[in-house]
Design goal:
185 residues
């Protein structure tokens, strides 16, 4: 295991040093870390909804987010479709965690939450994370359009995942959340 960690660190360093100087000042760290924070807050959303009539899928709330980021994107120099595509990945990652936790809690009722967080207090945190994500999405336009983006994102997601000490479920969700980071083509 230690050998793999050292190998990952060496390869990561080599990959990051091959980035052109013009892109070296841009980083995907903050964008990816915000996505990880949004993945982590899915635990609270799941705990708030579990055992209630509130469904995991919330098309009205999702559409509100899509409409909001699409409206704000042009002011930040982003295309609305690009912003919506990125936030679709964030929402799907959140639902992946919720579904995974529901399955875990159904299989192991003793692990189910004993308190129910208030969604009214969680949603403003998600809204702040969304604002940060949108801002970082605009700030990283050049690095996300670079050919090196997929490799840089993979490395960054691995480091952020380790930093947050995610379990397998949250690691999969982070991969989903960052799947739309790089600009296609």
């Amino acid at each position: 295991m230690r050998v793999l960690a050292v190998l990952f660190a060496v390869v990561s360093g080599l990959l990051l040093t091959t980035v052109p100087a013009s892109a070296a000042t841009s980083s995907l760290w903050h964008l990816t870390d915000l996505a990880a924070q949004r993945v982590a807050i899915a635990d609270q959303v799941a705990a708030a909804k579990y055992g209630t009539p509130s469904p995991i899928d919330d098309p009205v709330r999702e559409q509100q987010i899509y409409d909001s980021v699409a409206a704000r994107a042009p002011g930040l120099g982003l295309g609305p479709a690009e912003a919506v595509r990125f936030f679709h990945a964030q929402i799907e990652a959140n639902k992946l965690v919720q579904r995974g936790l529901y399955a875990r809690w159904d299989a192991h009722p003793a692990e189910a939450p004993t308190t129910r967080p208030d969604l009214g207090r969680i949603r403003p945190v998600i809204d702040r994370l969304n604002t940060g994500l949108l801002t970082e999405l605009a700030a990283t336009t050049r690095v996300r359009a670079a050919r090196s983006c997929p490799v840089r994102q993979l490395v960054t997601a691995g480091v952020v995942d380790g930093y947050h000490r995610f379990d397998a479920l949250h690691t999969r969700a982070l991969a989903e959340a960052t799947s739309a980071t790089c600009v296609a083509g």
